[in-house]
């Protein structure tokens, strides 16, 4: 049994953890016409410290509500230690870090006042070291971030576009006991269930993936796959968004909503809602058994092929979305799949139940056909963008249509007043 668990662990260790690489670009396209029947809401920029100072008597109440829900939904989740709870008596200089610790997120996260410039435009650029603590900045070096000032007025769409990308900047890094950080020892999440705890970016994986529809035998042999936390984050940030709107802080209402949307959008990616599309439990066990007797090729091939297709679709999506926005190619089939919605295409957000019943189920069911279609393309890795009629765009368009659909449903259900 331990050998089989090792197999599944290796697969998940090998998987990229980015999901959609370009949340800001996707959200920009979604919002391009979202408020077309009315004026885009305008909000006044507000620092996190200001928000916490004004609403510190109600913050913990919001977090307690999320935790009460999550403890019932996620049996593996432990209670927040009392010493981490946010207190209305917290000193002003400690408010932000205390808030992060009460959320059980990276206490070093930098809630800078900024927008991601999508599309690129002029302004005062924000250095990356004021936005993220990541050592490896990855594709962030390709992006432009502009500084904002408190009390400046901007569009709600600009807040959402930027915020949907933000959780990837370090919000969920180093939170487990084996990540060699002080908070990992007090947050109560235990050892990292999957992903490589020695790799910086991988430490966030259990917060951005959700496996709910795997065969029972997989969960029996690899119960650690149940230890995922995106629903916890979505509930936390949705409740905080509701609080912010209710108490007159629309900037943080939209920013927290954008944070919640990040995890929802991640779960629309089939490789984040399915461990090994098209690899049956029997096959997983079979390749491990033959590897035990020294025949490693089937297992090595399986790891290479699945992780390769996962990486391909994410890499291709990143560069394609950037190109569509830069060239304003709104008639491209992928752009149209994101922006063109009739009333018949829309769905209703049914609260937290939507995540498993609609978002994750749809992504899981899309896993097998998506993986097979990507394999049939015989494209080993991203190298270039293809002509509009290339079949990869039909695959990507289908997936991003679902991302757009669920993003719109969540936004339509926002309690903005």
UniProtKB/TrEMBL annotation:
GO terms for molecular function: hydrolase activity, acting on ester bonds. This is Phospholipase. It comes from Leptospira bourretii.
């Amino acid at each position: 049994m331990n050998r089989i668990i090792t197999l599944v662990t290796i697969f998940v260790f090998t998987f990229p953890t980015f999901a959609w690489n370009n949340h800001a670009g996707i959200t920009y396209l979604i919002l391009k016409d979202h408020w077309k029947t009315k004026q885009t809401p305008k909000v006044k920029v507000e620092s996190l410290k200001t928000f916490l100072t004004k609403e510190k008597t109600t913050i913990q109440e919001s977090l307690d509500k999320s935790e009460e829900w999550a403890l019932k939904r996620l049996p593996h989740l432990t209670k927040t230690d009392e010493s981490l709870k946010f207190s209305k008596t917290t000193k002003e200089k400690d408010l932000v870090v205390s808030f992060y610790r009460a959320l059980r997120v990276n206490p070093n996260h930098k809630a800078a006042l900024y927008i991601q410039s999508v599309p690129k435009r002029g302004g005062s650029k924000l250095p990356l070291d004021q936005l993220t603590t990541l050592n490896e900045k990855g594709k962030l070096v390709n992006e432009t971030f502009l500084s904002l000032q408190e009390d400046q007025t901007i569009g709600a769409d600009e807040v959402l576009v930027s915020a949907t990308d933000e959780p990837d900047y370090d919000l969920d890094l180093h939170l487990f006991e084996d990540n060699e950080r002080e908070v990992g020892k007090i947050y109560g999440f235990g050892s990292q269930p999957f992903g490589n705890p020695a790799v910086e970016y991988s430490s966030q994986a259990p917060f951005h993936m959700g496996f709910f529809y795997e065969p029972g035998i997989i969960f029996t042999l690899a119960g650690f796959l149940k230890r995922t936390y995106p629903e916890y984050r979505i509930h936390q940030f949705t409740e905080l968004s509701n609080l912010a709107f209710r108490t007159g802080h629309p900037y943080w209402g939209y920013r927290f909503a954008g944070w919640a949307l990040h995890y929802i959008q991640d779960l629309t990616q089939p490789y984040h809602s399915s461990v090994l599309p098209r690899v049956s439990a029997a096959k997983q066990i079979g390749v491990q058994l033959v590897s035990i007797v020294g025949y490693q090729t089937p297992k090595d091939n399986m790891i290479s092929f699945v992780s390769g297709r996962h990486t391909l679709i994410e890499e291709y999506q990143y560069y394609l979305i950037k190109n569509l926005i830069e060239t304003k190619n709104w008639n491209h089939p992928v752009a149209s799949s994101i922006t063109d919605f009739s009333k018949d295409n829309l769905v209703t957000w049914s609260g937290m139940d939507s995540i498993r019943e609609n978002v994750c189920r749809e992504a899981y069911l899309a896993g097998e056909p998506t993986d097979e279609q990507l394999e049939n393309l015989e494209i080993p890795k991203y190298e270039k963008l293809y002509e509009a009629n290339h079949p990869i765009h039909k695959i990507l368009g289908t997936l991003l249509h679902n991302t757009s659909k669920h993003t719109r449903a969540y936004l339509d259900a926002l309690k903005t007043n």
